[in-house]
């Protein structure tokens, strides 16, 4: 280690953070000042990383789950020498366009392994990363995949329910390379943590099979001891770091007042005096900066050694590893999809789209070894597992299927971690209605642009007897409203396969498939290479002159087809449009959209869901045959009849429009 | 106790359940069969309830958190003599219109204390109920409020993260009258619980300050012992009931196959033989039914005694208790609101609507003692606490404010429990973006029609530097899509007060207020008694002939007002419409709506959020000035400029419309 005292290294973090927050007049100084000592020990002695190659695949992952403490991370990135963060960036903290955003943003600044801020997400992402590490190590060997995942989490992260789902899964899976540093400062925003919680945090982790350690979070020797101990374990490790929030602020340290506001010039001046840091704002004396840069350079050696090991892999293994980590798909998968599509059009199965999804997975999973499935304890209902797809088990990570348990939120956030780590393309299932449980994780996937695929079955009142608690109504609208999320609702087995191909082929964001419980006939008449679902919507029946257009999605396309027959008997020509994806349809030219949908006044939509949002495509909500409110418990046929989502109702509304 | 053997009592539950599921060809027999013994002991010896007066306020609450086991509840209701459930209802299980819905539905069948099905919700509701019991007892005395809350929860409930939030809060608050019976059957849907979890469940509860007991869930003596022990404690109690799922099914018991499908005729016949139950389906021999009815009649004595105690209360206290439990508001609150409105219009404060919300609470809280506030650790940001509103503390329940901790989901679900219990009207705060974290609870409030009020501040990019993780974009749309939820976004202090009055005055469903972080001028010009927000939208400026209509909500009404000035300078007359609530506006007459909005082609909307859904009010999304995608970190002014949500942009779009 360097001759520069630890206190100087840590104080560099403290004052970069406090001064940047002060300059921005916005931010959270308390956490960076409180965790400066822990972070200094971690980044100078333990964490394996290389600022010159921030995305080097075998680096240790560091996740700042308490993302509001972003200046801790930016200080570390600057001090250790990441090119992305210079002093100007530090001085531009929280300004529009700066890399130093209010919370660390993945893809926006090198060194942010994930976007954090919504509490608990980072911790759960880290569990996914640690699991992905073990999975890719199982596949490619520990010579090339052998790293740890470190997390800094605060009390807020641990109060969120998602933390329990993540902790429980990490303990169950025995993720021994996961080390969580808990910022045990006993302060939350409202005041003392004791205002809202009496939990024995270590006991809680122990109950989920973790090892727990503790240290004085301001004593570098003690931090070092704990981190050393944490390096070897057969379980994940929690280190309770006893800290003082805002450490060094003379009158405010140890209080909630340091949490989320600038300290003020006087308090910062007092901290300078108290901590012996006479330097001007944003000035880090050369010996201190130099010591930090030396620490930052440590990882370069490890990276070069790793590159040598990589080079010694057989050529095809090496190519596969590089391809998989880059997120590129293996050659040949698209041909397999086309062959399967041809077979579907020949056999014309009448199956639920959840079953069609499983059939699609039977094609894709053998082609794309990175695909890793799972379900929140609904495997047999979501049909997310295929033959030969082995379970991932505690201590045995060679499989390709994860039993997430009844933990939708944890699943969504672990999937984000799997995708962030790389080498793995996650998909996971639950009922569509329970997308609500994992919605914060879906949003993060969309914001980060991660390839995560949600298999959401039982997608309407069509699930029947389970009733309104299980019947999605507002979910399609609420998911379509999320930017950068592709929401698919395929109408038959062919569309389901096409939508799966689009979801897997997409590398810049998440996709979801809303799938039926009930059987649906194959509608596609003729084989063609073109993925019609890629246009978002297309005419299924009734090319040529039309009196009215029936727009439907998923299971209701079949109802629209029947309505078309009824209308034909009345002498009216209807075109039926299947619209598996609003997002992709919006990306088409205005000419294509108009050609598909026909005159606006003569469009009718049918979807067994809330009409909310459908005015984008039809004139007003009287042109939508959908759900007026929540569903009910009963057999499927009775429900469709009861809520008036029938061919007769569609034909009636369409007739009025055609003749209006 | 009766001379009828326990086994007969329990087997009556088992076969009513198995046969009803079989007849419905749908449902979950495993849990009712597994928990029949525990439920029999609870309902015949411990639970205080009166089938003749299902809503008797001082009854014990029973929550079937594992709601898929609904036939357990329906069997108990039938056997103990609830008028709502006769044999025909049992035979109509899961049929459209039957009270015996797939999952128990509050308000649909007497005896369902809450709607359950989405796992974990019931447990968290129960924590809210147990807290409400202590709070109303603190207010009215234990002579009239003195009951327990029992929960049956399965492994699924406990795997959901929300359970941790609820467990943690219950332990913290020392809710000693809460008793959770854990159906410890070691089976989940995918198979053995061990497939997805290795948690030491009792240790986990202990870490949150619970007492834990265990019993053999098929031994009535042992169950009795545990429940007896649970009656006295200074902490909430978990009883781990070791059970066999589908107990009695000869080849399937103890397996996931009994969980969610009918057992089949042969298996049920085998169970009849194994358990010695020769009776036909739906036949409960008279002595057994009679013994059950006798057990059901136990509570009548307690109820009468309670009525005597109630009668001996001083008249005004009695009237207040009855009023509060009925959910009626005390006289006078509306006058206080009007006086405050008058004062606002006189003083015209320029305050953030979150601050205006606090000002509204300063009026309402003293008027309505049932109002109980709280925040998910953002009290100082949400401004949800007012002067003199004391905290509710462990063991001390006389206050009116709950520090929920960073537990939005738990907060939402506890609020539902508070509302369900009665005597309490809950409101709770977090940032609008974190509505996602509690969305499943909001949905349940809407489905059940509960008066819960969400105070959701920092409602747009207007929050500034915290960036895209904290800036809601799709949230207004996704919340407006939920049936029976009133989404308010008031434009100034007057509207905020009006919206608060509407939310408090509503007794058949939840409301939310989306509130700004930034200051907003008072727009309302003149005092009037009428609550203009009650119409959902109204003309703020520009009555008379107009060239164009600018529709806005919340903070953007001010931008629309500025755009109106710009347009006027160009010789164009614009009306500005404030639309605090889509739901209430939709409830107005078509004439009113047309008069307010003007010609469709000449409307422009401005809202710092996704345009999703706005086509309901304007011609197409090019007429919406809003957010194109996720936000960014930066000062508020820079963000509004960057995303083009400015008076100039609105005027530009409006000019094109007005001249188009």
Automatic annotation (TrEMBL), chains A, B:
Oligomer status and interactors: Homodimer.
Cofactors: Mg(2+); Ca(2+); Mn(2+); Co(2+)
Highest taxon of the lineage: Bacteria
Signal peptide location: none
Site (Important for catalytic activity): 28, 259
Family: Belongs to the transketolase family.
Annotated keywords: Calcium, Magnesium, Metal-binding, Thiamine pyrophosphate, Transferase
Function: Catalyzes the transfer of a two-carbon ketol group from a ketose donor to an aldose acceptor, via a covalent intermediate with the cofactor thiamine pyrophosphate.
Protein name according to UniProt: Transketolase
InterPro entries documented for this protein: THDP-binding, Transketo_C/PFOR_II, Transketolase-like_C_2, Transketolase-like_Pyr-bd, Transketolase_bac-like, Transketolase_BS, Transketolase_CS, Transketolase_fam
Keyword Nucleus appears in the UniProt entry: no
The protein's Enzyme Commission number: 2.2.1.1
GO CC, alphabetical: cytosol
Cofactor comment text: Binds 1 Mg(2+) ion per subunit. Can also utilize other divalent metal cations, such as Ca(2+), Mn(2+) and Co(2+).
Molecular functions per Gene Ontology: metal ion binding; transketolase activity
Residues annotated to bind Mg(2+): 155, 185, 187
Residues in Transketolase-like pyrimidine-binding domain copies: 351-522
Organism listed in the record: Rhodospirillum rubrum (strain ATCC 11170 / ATH 1.1.1 / DSM 467 / LMG 4362 / NCIMB 8255 / S1)
Record: residues binding substrate: 28, 259, 354, 381, 458, 466, 470, 517
Active-site residue numbers: 408 (proton donor)
Catalytic activity annotation: D-sedoheptulose 7-phosphate + D-glyceraldehyde 3-phosphate = aldehydo-D-ribose 5-phosphate + D-xylulose 5-phosphate
Keyword Signal annotated: no
GO biological process: pentose-phosphate shunt, non-oxidative branch
Entry binding sites for thiamine diphosphate: 68, 117-119, 156, 185, 259, 434
Pfam family, one: Transketolase_N
């Amino acid at each position: 280690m360097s001759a520069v005292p630890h206190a100087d290294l840590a104080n560099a973090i403290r004052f970069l953070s406090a001064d940047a927050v002060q300059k921005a007049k916005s931010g959270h100084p308390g956490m960076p000042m409180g965790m400066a000592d822990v972070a200094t020990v971690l980044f100078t002695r333990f964490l394996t990383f290389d600022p010159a190659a921030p995305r080097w695949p075998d680096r240790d992952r560091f996740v700042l789950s308490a993302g509001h403490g972003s200046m801790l991370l930016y200080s570390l990135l600057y001090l250790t020498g990441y090119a992305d963060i210079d002093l100007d960036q530090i001085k531009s903290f929280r300004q529009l366009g700066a890399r130093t955003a209010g919370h660390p943003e993945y893809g926006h600044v090198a060194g942010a392994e994930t976007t954090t801020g919504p509490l608990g997400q980072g911790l759960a992402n880290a569990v996914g990363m640690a699991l992905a590490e073990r999975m890719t190590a199982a596949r490619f060997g520990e010579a090339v995949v052998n790293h740890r995942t470190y997390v800094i989490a605060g009390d807020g992260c641990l109060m969120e329910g998602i933390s329990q789902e993540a902790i429980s899964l990490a303990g169950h899976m025995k993720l021994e390379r996961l080390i969580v540093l808990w910022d045990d400062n006993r302060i939350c925003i409202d005041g003392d943590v004791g205002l809202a919680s009496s939990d024995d945090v270590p006991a809680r982790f122990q109950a989920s099979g973790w090892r727990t350690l503790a240290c004085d979070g301001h004593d570098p020797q003690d931090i070092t001891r704990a981190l050393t101990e944490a390096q070897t374990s057969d379980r994940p490790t929690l280190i309770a770091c006893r800290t003082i929030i805002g450490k060094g602020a003379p009158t405010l340290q140890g209080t909630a007042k340091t949490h989320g506001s600038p300290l003020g010039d006087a308090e910062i001046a007092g901290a300078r005096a108290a901590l012996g840091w006479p330097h001007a704002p944003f000035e880090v004396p050369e010996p201190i900066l130099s010591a930090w840069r030396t620490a930052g350079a440590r990882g370069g050696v490890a990276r070069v050694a790793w590159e040598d090991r990589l080079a010694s892999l057989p050529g095809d293994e090496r190519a596969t590893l590089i391809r998989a980590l880059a997120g590129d798909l293996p050659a040949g998968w698209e041909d397999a999809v086309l062959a399967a599509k041809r077979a579907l059009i020949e056999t014309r199965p009448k199956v639920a789209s959840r079953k069609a999804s499983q059939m699609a997975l039977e094609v894709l999973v053998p082609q794309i070894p990175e695909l890793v499935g799972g379900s929140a304890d609904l495997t047999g209902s979501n049909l997310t597992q295929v033959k030969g797809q082995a379970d991932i088990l505690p201590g045995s990570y060679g499989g390709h299927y994860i039993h997430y348990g009844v933990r939708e939120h944890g699943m969504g956030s672990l999937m984000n971690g799997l995708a962030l780590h790389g080498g793995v393309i996650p998909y996971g299932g639950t009922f569509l209605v329970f997308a609500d449980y994992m919605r914060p994780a879906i949003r993060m996937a969309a914001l980060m642009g991660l390839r995560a695929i949600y298999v959401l079955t039982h997608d309407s009142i069509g699930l029947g007897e389970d009733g309104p608690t299980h019947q999605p109504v507002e979910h399609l609208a609420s998911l379509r409203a999320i930017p950068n999320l592709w929401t698919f609702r395929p109408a038959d087995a062919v569309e389901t396969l096409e939508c799966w191909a689009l979801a897997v082929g997409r590398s810049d964001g998440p996709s979801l498939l809303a799938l039926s419980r009930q059987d649906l006939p194959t509608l596609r008449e003729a084989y063609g290479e073109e993925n019609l679902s890629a246009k978002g919507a297309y005419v299924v029946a009734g090319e040529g002159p039309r009196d009215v257009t029936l727009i439907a999605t998923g299971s209701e396309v079949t109802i629209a087809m029947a309505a078309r027959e009824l209308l034909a008997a009345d002498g009216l020509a209807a075109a039926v449009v299947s619209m598996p994806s609003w997002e992709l349809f919006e990306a088409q030219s205005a000419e294509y959209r108009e050609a598909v949908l026909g005159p606006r006044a003569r469009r009718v939509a049918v979807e067994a869901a809330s009409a909310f949002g459908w005015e984008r495509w039809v004139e007003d909500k009287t042109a939508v045959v959908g759900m007026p409110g929540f569903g009910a418990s009963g057999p499927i046929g009775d429900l469709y009849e009861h809520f008036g989502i029938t061919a007769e109702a569609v034909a009636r509304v369409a007739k009025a429009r055609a003749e209006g």
